[in-house]
Records
---
Amino acid sequence: MARVKNVIRVTVGDVAKLAGVSRSAVSRTFTPGAPVSAGTRERVLSAAKELGYRPNALARSLTQSHTNIVAIVMGEFDNPFQPWMFDALTRHLHRGGKMPMLVTVDLAGDPVEPIYRALDFRVDVLVVAAGSLPDESVAACIESGVPVIMLGRSVETDIVDVVLSDNHMAGAQAATILINSGHKSLAYVGGSEGRLASKERGEGFVLALDNMGVGLTQKVFCGSYSYQAGYEAALSMLALDKKIDGIFCASDSLAFGVMDAVRDHLGLKIPHDLSVIGMDDVPMSSWPGYGLTTIRQPVNKIAEFVLERIDYWSVPGEKQPVLQRIPTELIVRNSVRLG
Amino acid sequence: MARVKNVIRVTVGDVAKLAGVSRSAVSRTFTPGAPVSAGTRERVLSAAKELGYRPNALARSLTQSHTNIVAIVMGEFDNPFQPWMFDALTRHLHRGGKMPMLVTVDLAGDPVEPIYRALDFRVDVLVVAAGSLPDESVAACIESGVPVIMLGRSVETDIVDVVLSDNHMAGAQAATILINSGHKSLAYVGGSEGRLASKERGEGFVLALDNMGVGLTQKVFCGSYSYQAGYEAALSMLALDKKIDGIFCASDSLAFGVMDAVRDHLGLKIPHDLSVIGMDDVPMSSWPGYGLTTIRQPVNKIAEFVLERIDYWSVPGEKQPVLQRIPTELIVRNSVRLG
DNA sequence: TTCCTTTGCGCAAACGATTGCACAGCGTCA
DNA sequence: TGACGCTGTGCAATCGTTTGCGCAAAGGAA
């Protein structure tokens, strides 16, 4: 059965005619705070309801200085943390009355074109999951002239907001629990050496160990946060040095890789022979198969803060970017031998 | 240092002035197929480049009958398959010149309001991840008057496109490999009984078994596709009947739950004592810790087809919705005992 | 009654594009 | 030379809103 959808779009004009008022009056009833008498407001509202009228957001955006569209710029979903963060973000945006428009940068494709295409829609803000993005894409965002909120990567300029987890704190939390539970020989598995998050987590870890008078036995950066990378890192580290009894990983997926390598390939018991700590607290960490003790990145707090900053940038005036660190939280499960 | 971003928006008018032509000429140079002489085109392009002009997509959408915005309507990310599918979808949309606008329906919040908010932007199409959505949300989409492409759930009306994996085929593929490799007592772990996908996968499985003269030992619907559900289902099934030697699960996450329950809690070996087959082929399936043999839902094929349908609906005329099944593919790993 | 202040409403001009229509220029053909 | 067709171009209307401004009506104060 062929069937054609045929929606006649109802406009301010239609509502105005039915309510017997001017288009301005209609517009004003839908603008909070605008002066309308109770009488007209009521007639307008009932006319609008009868016709099923809703203001055209495109037309509205044309006259106003904002669109309520927020672009989310991301790279590949190569880490389970990303969809997790992403989900929290979109939910908060909705709550704040914003519409998220998604820009996925394809590593194989043009790193800037999709960003320009989003800017064509006059998005209010660019929220940039900077960690997973090529430098060119990040640069394009910064130069766009639109407020930028950067997630998880610090950046050389001082004109954009940066929000990231308190990575030093995270490293310290991992060090503390490992030392307090009597571990002797510790290692760190980072992601990409060039990336701030991996670097800071390692620094925080080492610094805290130092303060407790312990040295770091081994450190490895594997270039990505992937499971595979963790798997391989664990094998090569333990081949080099068998007495390592605690490993802090810069992401949960690295940690999963480490755990599987150590259990399946080397036949060690976790946490009896070796303790593993991850970072992120993705849902999978709580699966009994892993039961990963980890440092949680508080995605909801981060998303909340992003929303605050969006509101901040949305009012005109002299503006001041911030760099905000969100405290992390130790989540204790079963991958660390206690006491 | 306070710093204000101050972007003067450049418009057709500015470009026209600089190039010494009318606004129409500028517009036409940016409209493929419109009549412009080589000379003016060149002058316009160079003026545009000098000013950094790009057409305002909002203004353009106002006059045209389409916006190039595609809404993606989703529920919770409660299944790792969803971000996976979602990622493929957005990439294909970008390739097709569409911008994805994300609508996440919060189970705790209003099931329709976010959808209306997206419609306010006059999105061209609603792509609906129907499986994870409340019925009211789905209904609102269907009644919106905008073309709808429904993913993974069939629906009572015949005015929307439906695209789903060939679930019967998937069930048959699972049955075939299990029987051919000599399994005797088989069980099926479904998600939500009311949901088409779970139902069909089970039917396909049972039907294929029937054809091979084998009966189904047990069947369970756990109400969701989650890891937890799989974990519990496995325990209760095996408590009831210890000789089950093959389980087909309606999703990979169910399968992970089953595997962990069976290995960690019951101490069985996979695939030696019990074979497990999943469905989806999420990236995690290939992790050595699981090595799950599974039925792949071809997300790229699905996304490709969605894009085709979007293009189909975008040209005006008498339209015919379709129901399309995408063939699935058996991915052999190590969770099924062969031969 | 007169004057002044509110309050609410409508007119018309934006916002930044696209596009139907008319027309100028120019070459071609009879 | 005149008629005809083709190309390109510009004018002006249009898309669906918002909003500054002027003004009428109403109400209060003197």
---
Amino acid sequence: MNRRTFHRAPEGERRQELIEATLDCIAEFGLKGATVRQIAIRAGVTAGLVRHYFESKDQMVAEAYRAVIASLTDKAAHVEGDPETRLRDFIAINLTEPVADSRSISLWAAFISQVRVDPILAEIHRDGYVTFRNTLQDLLADFLTLKNKPADAETCRAYAIAINGLVDGLWIEGCLAGDLFREGELVAIAMASVEALLGASIGSDKQ
Amino acid sequence: MNRRTFHRAPEGERRQELIEATLDCIAEFGLKGATVRQIAIRAGVTAGLVRHYFESKDQMVAEAYRAVIASLTDKAAHVEGDPETRLRDFIAINLTEPVADSRSISLWAAFISQVRVDPILAEIHRDGYVTFRNTLQDLLADFLTLKNKPADAETCRAYAIAINGLVDGLWIEGCLAGDLFREGELVAIAMASVEALLGASIGSDKQ
DNA sequence: GTCGCTATTGTTCAAGCGTATAATAATGCG
DNA sequence: CGCATTATTATACGCTTGAACAATAGCGAC
């Protein structure tokens, strides 16, 4: 009986491959289609290996959720430059690929639908959301100060909620029905909307 | 061997109960927790009955999705009165219960995560989305005309995309983290934001 | 009433699930 | 080079799944 040949992956690499394969399967087949066997096939290993790297399938899925949140928030959290540029980049990053694509929202939705069910996922979610909105709120505070507008905490909070909602909502529209929009249309609408909301130019015409 | 006693449900009623039980299970346990057996328990019948009313479990789930979309869009699609009132009601309805609650978004997300997987769900989704945005676009056209502002199709389209995004995004924020907002805060932010976007009062202070 | 129809039950089945475990191939170290 | 270590394969196990099916209980027609 001939065994398959294989190679031992370098430290931590196989772990990352398994998480990536998990996300591929969730995006392609949904959460219930992301079985241990299917994930293993995708990663090019056999099913038994999963339990060598993770305590359980649930734990692997939770780590995969952390990876999704990171992919959705990391880029936007590290914008640089003056407040105006950062605000513009924040909007553009969230509404163009790779953040805005149908795979992203499939993954996001799959996990969101489990947040109410699984307390562990709920905690991961809450952390990610609070971080994201605080990033935006700080960004708005800097921007409003630059523009010599009121930038008290309450005002920034309301703007952050509104703009966060706007960007999230447009992100979803774009992900779910990207073909209904022209190239760059969503970003343009977002820029114009934010200018209207804040009553200040963000120099979106410079783009 | 004693069989359970039961009663034969009136025309169509049992069908509706099964769909409702399906949604309960999806909201409570997620899509993969919504098994035929669990759904039957919730509906107070045995598992075998499902296949008497539906060709397959998948078909029952698809019909359940239609029910979800209807519950999310019906109320907002039937607002009445002058354009200003209708616009205000449209916003308020989408951001207060029963449309805005954690059960709604769990259901919505569960199905959205499957839209890419299942072509049947994709079609149901697309229909619902187009209808929803067209309703909003018509509403905005009436409103802008009333306010003697430009109401050409292109302008209305851009406003509809932006406001649809804003309302959807705030809906999600409210559903997922309702405890982070004060009573009526989201509706107030939405009203103020829409006024800023359109550059016109919608009389939100009258509420 | 009782008879026929069918909605509902209860049981069974093959397939697929997550997990456990033993055998083994690859790798690093002396 | 030979040996210990362990990453990986392969197989098996108990359980749940959606579906199929025969038996039967409720109910309307007559």
